[in-house]
Amino acid sequence: MQLFDVRTARILVTISAFIAAGAFLYGIRHAIVLFLFAIFFAYLLAPLVGRVQHSCLARGSRALAIAETYVCLGLVFGGLTIVFGPRLARDTRRLAESLPYLLENVATGNIAWQLGSRHGWSHDTQVRIQHFIAAHQQELLNWAAQAGRRIAEFLANALWLIVIPILAIFFLREGERFAEAAVHALERGKQRRLLRDILGELDRMLSRFIFTQLMLGGFSLVAYGLVLTLLHFPYSLVLALAGGIMEFIPVVGPLVAAVVIFGVGLLTAFPHLWVVALFLAGWRVSLDYFISPRVMGGGLEMHPLMVIAAVLIGAELGGIIGVYLAIPIAATIRILGSSWKAYSAADEVGKTRLTEVVTPPPPRRAIR
Known about the structure:
Elements: H1 6-27, H2 29-53, H3 62-108, H4 110-119, H5 123-135, H6 137-156, H7 160-184, H8 189-230, H9 236-246, H10 252-267, H11 273-296, H12 304-358
Helix pairs in contact: 2-3, 2-7, 2-8, 3-6, 4-5, 7-8, 8-9, 8-11, 8-12, 9-10, 10-11
């Protein structure tokens, strides 16, 4: 009886290698996410850097174009901070100061009496709502605590806002060289062609995805800001900024932004809350069915069910960051699968043609 099976040993070594690689990637997941966001930021600035590079300002210098782009973005950001910064800081401070009081009103059920007196609810309705809130007080407190932890976790990574633009400089300057080095590292010509096709598809997908998210976030920021300001909605500027930022988180972000805006209006007993609800619903329909398809163009070629599944899996594995990265990762997997399928089909066709050429035709019989 053979005590050492070579095949079994190879299988165990392969499984152990995959487990070790997975554990290593999980251990450095924060660094991987940091580099992914740096790549996204580089894709965001790549078209602008290309335009500046081919203009008379940079005279064909890539490094000078990157530097001038960063300076222009700094000036624009500084100007926006000077114009909107004081009001944004004031709204943020007021919201932070009043939030504990608003949550206390919800936890105690006093919000039912405030809303009832403003909207003319009956006494029995106010009592039923107060009893309902009191019965679910612990669930509401747990939800608020969980939301606070998520926000604190997100704000704890604020250092990324400094590191990501710095790392993006290297990808903007050396990105094409990195791609060519990866392609030339392969020996066979077919493998090089496969990798070059995959990189080209990934480049187009990421460019389309980043551009779409930027445009949708900008449209949402302007729409929320204009409508909420015209309605004299409380904390309008900070809520508009939050709504524009949340648009970068696919599927979940817009829903959370709408719930937060409606919830603030409910807690503050805003008199025209039905107008806000109609605006949120109308804007969502307009953005999803009219604006987004035209901005997205061809789209990411992903089924809506696949998008929803990717977002749910990303939220379960990585929280807010996982939700944002879910769609590009799922699109990358789709590109890898389709490219490998096309490569395998072409390889089979090539082998069939080679067999037909090498195999000699059967000899013909002489005609008597």
